[in-house]
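User: For a teaching handout, I'd like to show students what a predicted protein-ligand complex looks like in token form. I'll give you the sequence and the SMILES for zinc ion. Please answer with just the structure.
Assistant: Understood, here is the input followed by the structure.
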Amino acid sequence: MKLVQNFLTKNDCYKSGRKITVKGLMLHSVGCSQPNASVFVKNWNRSGLEACVHGFIDGNTGTVYQTLPWNHRGWHAGGAANNTHIGVEMCEPACIKYTGGATFTCSDTATAKAVAKRTYEAAVELFASLCKQYNLDPMKDGVIISHKEGCVRGVASNHGDPEHLWNQLGTGYTMNGFRKAVQAAMKGGGVTTTPSTGNAATGGTGATVKPYLVRVTVSDLYIRKGPGTNYGKNGFIAPGVYTIVAESAGAGATKWGKLKSGAGWISLDYAKTV
Ligand SMILES: [Zn+2]
């Protein structure tokens, strides 16, 4: 999975700066024929918009664009789920045409299905990684829900996504199947997704992020050979500024960061973003 951080710093939701305790994940689909996540990232980075989500999954590449810090309160559900759930949008095929409400026609079913498959598989990987990071059980009632299910539960507005897309394209995807796929992906099996670029890290090597700088001020922080205190030590890191190129969940820290130098991983709990 390739993840690019591109926070919507000009969006009023970002500026309001409220945090949540993450209790679940809500899956959305954008509801318009636009496969390019970068278009949303660009258009939503402004004030005066009453919507903001945590991420968009690109329909052509499967790349995840993270647009809010995960524990930021988003404006994605139109209901109480904003207080508890991370919201992620899957982009939709260019070859569909909405004819009213959630109904659409499709000029190229094969291409549309390929886009739906790509975003579905990337969403499975992303949700598996977030479940690990926030210690969530994907099969527990109400943890992973679609916008549509959120509406039925009374915690989201009256939308039908993303099931409306899956059903009309005849993909066979369901939210129950999605939750099972997330559970399987957490165990390290069940999902095979080809990285969209050669440098995308997968599995135990964490998710590639846009490189950023952190400052380490303590002198007793270990470098680990992998993302977790269960990995071997590689000496102490000297206080200073370092570049982080990948992130991962792992034992003993809220989040682990991979050092650009290749020396290993450090707990980001002891590093401040510069
Ligand atoms: Zn939605």
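For the handout, you might add this sentence: The helical segments are 12-16, 37-43, 109-133, 147-152, 163-169, 175-186.
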